[in-house]
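Exercise 7.
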Amino acid sequence: MKIFYANARGIRSKIHSLKSILTDLHEINIVALAETNLSGNSKIVIPGYKWIGSNRRNKEGGGVGFLVKNSLLGNTTISKMPCNSTECLWLKITLSLNQVLCIGIFYGKQENDKASTVFDDYELLKQDILAFKAAGYQVLLTGDFNAKITSKYENHTSRNGKFLLDLVDKCNLDILNQSVKCQGVFTRVNTKNKAQKSIIDYAICTESLTTHFTSMYIDTDEIYKLTGKKSASDHNSIILDFKIQPREIPPIQNKPYFKINENTNWAPFKESLDVTKFTETYLAVNHKDMSDLYQQWLNKINQVCEKTLPKSNPTYKDPVMSFPEVKVAKNAKRESKKHFESSIATKNKTISQMLKIVI
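Solution. The predicted structure, written as tokens, is:
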């Protein structure tokens, strides 16, 4: 599973940039965005992905959200943080029948915000993560924490950094930025002074998930930086890779089957599908775009089929029933039923024999 994280610093002006990045990184399953600056019910549209976001209601800026690949939507549920002041959003993804991954995107308060409000945010994060762990879920939290922790690149731990380290300690988490599998260091660069660099964006996860962690790439070369016509993000994008395979459930398509045999009456079909008229009309307009003409012709044929040919509804097969775990469970159920029926038959036979003896 590949995850692309970025602090967008306003995503509206950078949609084209994001589309281009996802075209280059075509294997991205989930995009996690912080500081989207969306408001109300605003959302973004990227072909092949569904937007799941949480926007600020009472003031400008902030906002977090995910773009989830369409193939994952059949097994992805959403759970939001219980406090409106906390900018965090969780996705719950079923990896198998007994393995669940909770992915969070977090936008932390600034260092100059009230310590009590920052403390409250981290307490809520702590409650969520501990609850997920108690349920047996694996947890990954990414985002702009606006926190600095001491390292060979940072000479001190900031106030918010202490809250972050306390969260990591109490929830027994790993900071993936500190892993030898992480390439790149600084996650934010001052656009007005390139010499000012810092580490304030992190990816942290449960120890059980760390065993599946294969790589983390901090884009210090700015190859995948979100950019707009007038501005660019001052944060470096991050790409995470885990050796886990999410369930990709294909979308349900309820297309009817047409009853076609030697007795099918094609007269209404031929009458409705005036080939000559259609060709003359559309070829004159679309002669430079044959692919568009083909698609319109195909749509026309489908419409006529729906209208004139007899149909039968197909039997829907739930794709979940093909999962290996489901097959094992069904076999176990079948064996239990056979054992139960055999046991009942044996008891009935014994009772019958005893009755014969009594009689």
